[in-house]
Write a structure and sequence with these properties.
With about 80 residues, this protein is of the alpha/beta class. Helix 1 links the parallel strand 1 and strand 2. Strands 1-2-3 form a three-stranded parallel sheet. The chain has one domain.
Length: about 80
Amino acid sequence: MTTVVLLGEAVRLLGDEIDDIRDVEILEKYLPMIEQLKIPFILPDALNQIPVRDVFSIRRETDETIKNFVRSIDCALVF
């Protein structure tokens, strides 16, 4: 199963305010498909959380849990 971990400013990709994101038209093209596929996202559980749309499958985790998850996977794509 594919799981996407978004850290830092990458969390903004799932928010309402995406107008200032570079290549936003590409993002807008694929977000409905990602929503439909119910691809799970793991986001950091931070004090100042960036608000995200509730149409996505989102799980908030601690930094330690995210670190352990990344260490446990067989394959990763980082960009």
